């Protein structure tokens, strides 16, 4: 083993490619697992909480429809009375 052999490891950088490939491979596995819903339970519970907060009430939807002029004032008043009673 002469001096030309010591040029390959670790000084030449040949170890970087396998390390990068390992990191990419692990990242792809994590990405697919995350995408297919294999998330920890703590994330799943907060996701359900956000979905519940995002849902709108009937009155909110009615107010938006009236604001967009999709319905008349008479329709708005009638629907609002039905919702609140």
Structure write-up:
With 85 residues, the chain is mostly helical. It has a domain at 54-85. Helix content is 66%, strand content 0%. It has helices at 16-35, 41-54, 58-67, 73-84.
Give the tags:
single chain; about 80 residues; mainly alpha; rod-shaped
Compute the CA-based radius of gyration. Answer: 30 Å
The residue fraction in helices comes out at 55-70%
Low-confidence stretches: none
- Got a strand count? 0
Euclidean distance between termini CA atoms: 92 Å
Structural class: mainly alpha
**What does the average pLDDT come to?**
77
How would a textbook summarize the main sheet? none
Order of helices and strands: HHHH
Number of helical runs?
A: 4
What is the approximate shape? rod-shaped
Strand content: under 5%
